[in-house]
Design brief:
Largest sheet: 2 strands, antiparallel
Radius of gyration: 21 Å
Number of helices: 15
Number of strands: 2
Strand order of the largest sheet: 1-2
Helix content: over 70%
Order of helices and strands: HHHHHHHHEEHHHHHHH
């Protein structure tokens, strides 16, 4: 019986074009369609300069979406992204403009520490108190909003943007945006982490069944804490690049990113229920959402219409994942 089992090939092992790869190919095809369609509205869409600019903007979205993907792979969702972004920008620009040279030099690390702190707070609610991530992170987001309003008093935060943030956001190396190069490096590292490390294996396993991972003796809570802390750091990292790009911090700076970030993750093939997805899909999803947003801007679509479109994308992907899951279980 054992010999028979060894000779039976895995059906999945012979399918090079599995669901994840098909999803990535379709997204990339969608990007090409958007470029061609956008060129009909705006001829500059196909120019190299414009494409490089879109890659630069996609990097901001893609880096923030990296953390969101990790949380979604876990089977949870992080709704504190908007004000983690805003709070980080306020902290960094305030610290950078400080009269104390030591504080000014630590502006970027302080911003990343804020993201890690928010992630840790989110993890405590989910891992320790066993509360739904959606509710807990939404409450944390509201707390960050209140803290930002209390600190700034409904006004823009004055200060100097760190030179490193500006160079990383708008600088170029051999004509390629530095932000995109940074995103590529993060993509390579994340693909390795998800496929080759113990953490990646546990992350997928917990997305499928946290109880099974716990019963297997794994430190499930540590995985949850690491995931939310990483998500907070990636949100703050993206915020620092955004700060370098916009050269200012203001309230509501992160509000436009929640729906596009989630859309980029789910359209990239990551199951909203957790346990399935790959970073290549998220990478392609961020490019697709960026091009779609650009076309909507050229068409002068109101922000409300954009939110409707992004919401519809999420709903459609939820239905697709749901139907696919049912078919796989039959």
């Amino acid at each position: 019986m054992t010999a028979t089992a060894r000779t039976v090939p895995s059906r999945k092992s012979h399918r090079w074009l599995d669901r994840d790869r098909i999803s990535v190919l379709l997204i990339m095809l969608g990007c090409i369609v958007l470029l061609l369609g956008g060129s009909l509205l705006y001829p500059g869409f196909l120019k190299l300069g414009y494409i490089l600019q879109q890659l630069q903007i996609a990097a901001f979205l893609g880096i923030i979406a990296t953390g969101a993907m990790l949380v979604i792979l876990l089977g949870e969702i992080d709704l504190s992204v908007p004000w983690t972004i805003t709070g980080t920008a306020i902290v960094v620009i305030s610290a950078s403009g400080s009269s104390n040279p030591m504080i000014a030099s630590l502006a970027i690390p302080l911003g990343l520490c804020l993201g890690a702190g928010v992630g840790l707070l989110n993890a405590v609610g989910v891992a320790v108190f066993r509360l739904p991530a959606m509710v807990w992170t939404l409450a944390v987001n509201a707390m960050l909003l209140g803290a930002a309003v209390f600190y700034t008093g409904n006004s823009r935060t004055n200060g100097e943007v760190p030179w490193l943030a500006t160079q990383a956001a708008i600088g170029r190396t051999f004509g390629i945006p530095n932000a995109f190069i940074v995103w590529l490096v993060i993509a390579v590292v994340m693909i390795w982490v998800l496929k080759r490390t113990v953490y990646g294996n546990y992350l997928y396993a917990m997305g499928n069944s946290q109880r099974a991972v716990f019963l297997a003796g794994a430190r499930a809570r540590l995985v949850i804490v690491a995931t939310f802390v990483l998500a907070g750091i990636f949100s703050s990292f993206g915020a620092i690049l955004l700060l370098g790009y916009t050269n200012q911090a203001y309230q509501g700076m992160g509000d436009p990113y929640l729906m596009p970030v989630i859309s980029a993750v789910v359209i990239g093939g990551t199951s909203i229920q957790g346990g399935r997805g790959n970073y290549v899909g998220t990478f392609a999803g961020a490019l697709f959402i960026t091009l779609l947003s650009s076309i909507l801007s050229v068409m002068q679509m109101p922000a409300a219409v954009r939110d409707i479109i992004f919401g519809a994308i999420i709903l459609i992907m939820l239905l697709v994942h749901g139907l696919t899951g049912k078919n796989e279980n039959i």
